[in-house]
Amino acid sequence: MNNNMNETQYFGRNQNEPENEAKRILISVSTALREKGYNPVNQIVGYILSGDPTYITSYLNARAMIRKLERDELLEELVKDYLKRNE
Questions:
Q1: How far apart are the first and last CA of the chain?
Q2: pLDDT tens per residue across span 6-31
Q3: Hey, is 51 helix, strand or coil?
């Protein structure tokens, strides 16, 4: 870990994961949550913040899918998409 607070740390994607894997998983999980009557935003945020997979339904294998990725990869995809849409 970088102890100098004046330098920027680098945060990057695991090069083994395809670029669109996180996006595909988020869309699939969102669909499963919506079909089961949950608010996808609330449930996905709960999962990302807590790491508790029970925020995600097992319907349509959504829980297993979302656990294939690290939570930071999901957050990275969300931020990237938000910035792309708002720049």
A1: 31
A2: 776 665 655 554 558 999 999 999 99
A3: coil
Q: For the whole prediction, is pTM greater than 0.90?
A: no
pLDDT value for 59: 98
Provide long-range contacts, Cβ within 8 A and 24+ apart, for 56-65: 56/29, 56/32, 57/32, 57/33, 59/32, 59/35, 60/28, 60/31, 60/32, 60/35, 61/32, 62/28, 62/29, 62/32, 62/33, 65/25, 65/28, 65/29
CA distance 69 to 65: 8
Can you tell me the distance from the alpha carbon of 56 to that of 54, in angstroms, rounded to the nearest whole number? 5
